[in-house]
UniProtKB/TrEMBL annotation:
<dbReference type="InterPro" id="IPR024079">
    <property type="entry name" value="MetalloPept_cat_dom_sf"/>
</dbReference>
<dbReference type="InterPro" id="IPR006026">
    <property type="entry name" value="Peptidase_Metallo"/>
</dbReference>
<protein>
    <recommendedName>
        <fullName>Metalloendopeptidase</fullName>
        <ecNumber>3.4.24.-</ecNumber>
    </recommendedName>
</protein>
<keyword id="KW-0482">Metalloprotease</keyword>
<feature type="binding site">
    <location>
        <position position="168"/>
    </location>
    <ligand>
        <name>Zn(2+)</name>
    </ligand>
</feature>
<dbReference type="InterPro" id="IPR001506">
    <property type="entry name" value="Peptidase_M12A"/>
</dbReference>
<feature type="binding site">
    <location>
        <position position="158"/>
    </location>
    <ligand>
        <name>Zn(2+)</name>
    </ligand>
</feature>
<dbReference type="GO" id="GO:0004222">
    <property type="term" value="F:metalloendopeptidase activity"/>
</dbReference>
<keyword id="KW-0645">Protease</keyword>
<keyword id="KW-0378">Hydrolase</keyword>
<keyword id="KW-0479">Metal-binding</keyword>
<keyword id="KW-0862">Zinc</keyword>
<feature type="domain" description="Peptidase M12A">
    <location>
        <begin position="60"/>
        <end position="257"/>
    </location>
</feature>
<keyword id="KW-0732">Signal</keyword>
<keyword id="KW-0865">Zymogen</keyword>
<dbReference type="InterPro" id="IPR034039">
    <property type="entry name" value="ZnMP_hatching_enz"/>
</dbReference>
<feature type="active site">
    <location>
        <position position="159"/>
    </location>
</feature>
Length: 257
């Protein structure tokens, strides 16, 4: 997350190590963004790759052979991503969604713009879970942000970056140089969520601090670490503050801005 030709959609985000903040449940212990996503999505009726990526029906989940997988850049050099936000969200939730995507606008060449009559657009909806498709799918494309858990700044940006074409950091092609996957702590039925993918890493370093990196115990069956950073196992991973510096760099490199 090599220069991005039209043959590759797989990219994973990378950046500076950030602190690993947590979110508080209303009536419970503090939990990370990863645990929030995976806990909520465990009840979803959809089959989700890596916990929150909708299984593609028209192409391989890891490779895109067409430039149509990406949002188009206009003559002004900006990449327009039309969107709508469901009226089913509360006014506060709508404000949080708008704030999170406008923050992406302010730091990259992406421009999330309210949809007028564009054929391809994102539809932020309070469905059953926190999930998104990978890259531009065409026509209406749902980004699900279930009320009561998914409508937080970090999760909104996480799912929005999936829609831009970014995968999880810990599945990028060079991850074994930076993390150890502890297979014995992962349910064998969920081990596919840790498969490495053939990714376009955009000549950027592995990013422990990416908003796309899952935390240490993602998909754990025993509470023990499933992902251990190396050589320093204490490096924080799984933050939910928002885009890291290298997340920003990768967005701009992917879209040639």
């Amino acid at each position: 997350m090599e220069q991005i030709p039209s043959v590759s959609l797989l990219l994973l985000l990378v950046g500076l190590s950030l602190a690993s903040p947590v979110m508080k449940q209303v009536d419970g212990p503090e939990i990370s963004m990863t645990k929030t996503i995976l806990t909520i999505n465990n009840r979803s009726s959809k089959f989700l790759l890596e916990g929150d990526i909708v299984t593609p029906t028209t192409r391989n989940a890891m490779i895109c052979y067409s430039s149509g997988c990406f949002w188009r850049k206009g003559s002004n050099g900006k990449v327009e991503v039309p969107y709508i936000v469901s009226s089913e969200f509360t006014s506060n939730e709508r404000h949080t969604i708008e704030t999170a995507i406008k923050n992406i606008n302010s730091k990259t060449c992406i421009r999330f713009v309210p949809r007028q009559n564009q054929a391809d657009y994102l539809s932020y909806e309070p469905r059953d879970g926190c999930w998104s498709s990978l890259g531009r799918q065409g026509n209406q494309q749902v980004v699900s942000l279930q009320s009561g858990g998914c409508v937080t700044f970090g999760i909104i940006q996480h799912e929005s970056l999936h829609a831009l074409g970014f995968q999880h950091e810990q599945t990028r092609s060079d991850r074994d140089d930076y993390v150890v996957i502890n297979w014995s702590n992962i349910d064998p039925d969920n081990s596919f969520n840790f498969d490495k993918t053939h990714t376009n890493n955009l000549n950027t370093p592995y990013d422990y601090g990416s908003v796309m990196h899952y935390d240490n115990t993602a998909f754990s069956i025993n509470g023990q670490d499933t992902i251990t950073p190396i050589p320093d196992p204490n490096v924080p991973i799984g933050q939910r503050v928002g885009l890291s510096s290298t997340d920003i760099l990768k967005i701009n490199r992917l879209y040639n801005c």
